What we know:
7 helices; 17-stranded mixed β-sheet; Porin
Amino acid sequence: MKMKKNLILGILAIATFWQLGLASEERPPFVQFARPMAMGGAFTAVADDNNTFSYNPAGLVQRKGSEFTLLEILGGVSQDAIDALEFLRDNEDHLTDFDDYSAADPEGAANLINEIRTDISRLNSRVFAAADVASYLSGPGPWGIHFGFGLLGSANNTFILEARQIAPTISYYFTSDAILPISLAKRWENPFFIPGKLGVGVTGKFLRRYEIISIRQSTAELDELTTPPLQKGKGFGGDIGLLYQPTDRINIGSMIQDAGGTKMSFEATEAEDGFPAQPERDIVIRPRTNLGLSIVPAKLLFLVPTNDRWTFSADIRDVFHPDEHVLFQNGFRKPFGENLYTHLHFGAEFRYWFLRFRGGINQGYPVGGLGIDIPFLKLDYAYFVREDGGFAGDVKEVNHALSLAIRFGSGNTEARERVKNAKETRKLKTGTPDEEMEPKEKGHQAVAEPESGGDVAPANTSEQKPESKE
């Protein structure tokens, strides 16, 4: 099967095959990498890396120093995608010349239609990728202001093959975005006499979108099984985020994505390869409001010390969805709506030396992943399951994702500083290294890694007295 290479659009390509049909509204620009995926998408109150552009610009206030990402690429695939692509490749001639094929082999044509109806149309397959071409996040600058900017890419494609009386039909809904975000954030101590800290962040973004919309195009009318012509659009939008920290261990976050609606204008396209022309049009990406909570407990179950290595988080995303009941369906009589479970996200992350263990619940499904965090190089894997239906358990989509990043300064965050301080505190109390320190490093002097986000194993101090603090 011939697939046009312009779908890659320079930095990424995603192909998604859904059972439910085409999306009923314009998709928001959203770039997601392996770390939040493995944590179930519960990242609104956690975001302290380049994911702040998508999850919460106020998360910038958690940075103690700058971070520079030279490149991050994520890719993944599901078995359903492989099956669907193999079917189209093996049957391309029959699908594009279905009239002749059905006349020459009526039984074969009937079997092909039956296979599409019973098997192929039920596939929930996905091949996807994302990219952070380059981004920068600052530490606190003049007047305590943090800022960040970058070039990000995301894409999504819905592809549906359906059985019809005359010939099978193909429907496309494809979006590929290039996003230029600029974020600013600032934090205040005890705002309005409220104890704790309040961070406020805003993001302005320029969005360039490439889109395909083609509904139930007969395969018999197509010259070949290829993609329709792209329609180009552009627009400007903005996000607003809050991060309230009542204590050093609790974050409460909120974000309005595409605040006020992101308006976009699309150019007209001409008819091509059997696909109809598309007129000029204007659309609005509606706002979405997300709420989040994260906790770094001192002890698990009030008994087991965590050494500040655990983070737990929870999100409710798109709480004011216009067509779904998330919260307060019938006022206070039914505070939890019937669609709440597809909007719930839970996550956890455990840091041990240069390893990151992650897990969570995404829309009712278990997810997980592993990260390797060494100087300048970050490798992350995510097992990610999401719900494509309106209710939990309707349409399960299983994905595997792997990301690779070249990043400097990822450890310049409050979370990393908390772990370092906990180590120093334990060393001062005991005069010996922590028993949980990595065995590989015991007996050897540790090497400082100022640019790494990884946890550095401590030096062996069994023959040295800790320095006293006056």
